[in-house]
Amino acid sequence: MSSLFPVNVGEEIMKTREVVLPGDEVSLGDLKARNGLYKNGESKFCSAYFGTIQRSDQFVDVVPFWGTYMPRRGDRVIGKVIEIGPSMWIVDINAPYTSLLHMNDAPWRINPGDLKRYMNTGDYMIAKVLSLNEIKESWLTLKDVGLRKLEGGTIVSIQAPKVPRIIGKNGTMVNMIKDMTFTRIIVGQNGLIWLDGTPGNVIIAIEAIELVKNEAHTIGLTDRVKALLESKKGEIVGNAE
Amino acid sequence: MGTQSDIKLIDENGLRLDGRSAGDLRPIRIEAGVLERADGSAMIEWGGNKIVVAVYGPREAYPKHNQDINRAIVKARYNMAAFSVDERKRPGPDRRSIEISKVLSEALSAAIMVEQFPRAQIDVFIEVLQADAGTRIAGLTASSVAIADAGIPMRDFVTGCTAGKVDGKVVLDLSKEEDNFGQADLPVAVLPKSGKIVLMQMDGDLSVEEFDTATSMIMNAIPRINEIQRNALSSRVKVEGGGGE
After folding, report:
1. Interface ipTM > 0.90
2. Which end of chain B has the least Cβ crowding within 10 Å, N or C?
3. What is the Cα–Cα distance from A55 to A33, expressed in whole angstroms?
């Protein structure tokens, strides 16, 4: 099992990433500014958030510790039906604005006024943000691979800025939790996470997610999540291979 | 304000009633993230002031005709508890608190990147539990901590301070007695990095020279207050990181 994951043990010390506050100047070096930065009056780049600095190969981002999800085109989000119109579902996507799902963007042949038969209020779905306009009105679609109505399972929510940590580099973190707890997990870009499996396993998976949520700004997180899951191995059902 | 009295507010050594000299601040303590259900929150103790601030949003603005298609609206609500002052305050918004809510909303809009959230509203609830002069500035100072805590993008903090004229002398950060029996009160809020003024009101009279002294005193105090705001936020992360270094 462990051969699937890169093993680098020995980093017990929790290192915190560089913390910035609103208005703090951020030195870019050769990199370009991306999210969470703005140019002040003297055209220097400053942080807009209380968060951490993340430097990749090309870009510098400021990732806030907390914050709401803002929809972007192409994001896969988990939404909840809150209202049904004659041809549209009104969907809560955990953002400041509600989103719309038109019946033609659903994978079923629906007659107008008959939407309730397919998805009722309170139902969850994994959908993609199809389009978004200047005033942040957005439309969803269910017509793509992996998009569907979510039946059963549990929803947990985390802060949207922490989603990349839950997923990990190329999905390492979420895949590890999936494989080690035998749970089906779908992570929405908007911070909602759907889990399905044996109740005991789901609880352990949620525990792992909580750990990521609380320590998202530290380094060496994958190892600690792994250690947590290893210690719970006895409680996980279906572990006999 | 303006009521003449026999109380001597500044003694022969130049010290004030609470033992401060002209340029001293009262002790300030800010704590971020005090409320569980708010998106962001802060509590401030500034001298005898005790204020809790809760921030919600950005969320869709209601009623719908209040929505601005280009930016978020900031709705600050300054409210004094009935028990916050010596004599019971009649609860509910009055002329004074409506005015303060308005000027605080405008001051905060200058710092928040409202253009990123069209049609939305950001609610800031400022609850004064105990009042001791300078509540609007203390509330505003705590609000900007609560907004940063909520993860709302801001250009800078908003930091405020007051100055005033007491017994004919310009002093910083008026206490309750100085506010009641002094000759002038000048609350100012600025964006500390750029020095831009986002709020300035004056009660009473100051000469041009006195005004200049008062503003320069405030500008000197701002970095000190801003440091307290910054520490309130950064200390929160260290705790959440499980005590790790």
Report:
1. no
2. C
3. 10
